Amino acid sequence: MASLPLAPATSPASRLSRAAGRGRRKTLTAYLFLTPFLVLFCVFVVAPIITGLWVSLHDWNPLLPRQPFVGLQNYIELFTPGSLTSGDFWESMRATAIFTIASVPFLLVVPFALAVLLHQKLKGGTVFRAIFFAPYVLGVAVIGVIWKFLLDPQSGTLNKVLGAMGLPDSIPWTVDVPWVWISLVGVTVWWTMGFNTVILLAGMQGIGSELYDAAAVDGAGVWRKLTGVTLPGLRPVFMFITTTSILASANMFGQSFLITAGAPGDESRTAIMYIADQGLKQSQMGAASAMSYILFACLAVISVINFRLQRERS
Question: Which pLDDT does position 313 carry in this prediction?
Answer without folding.
Answer: 65
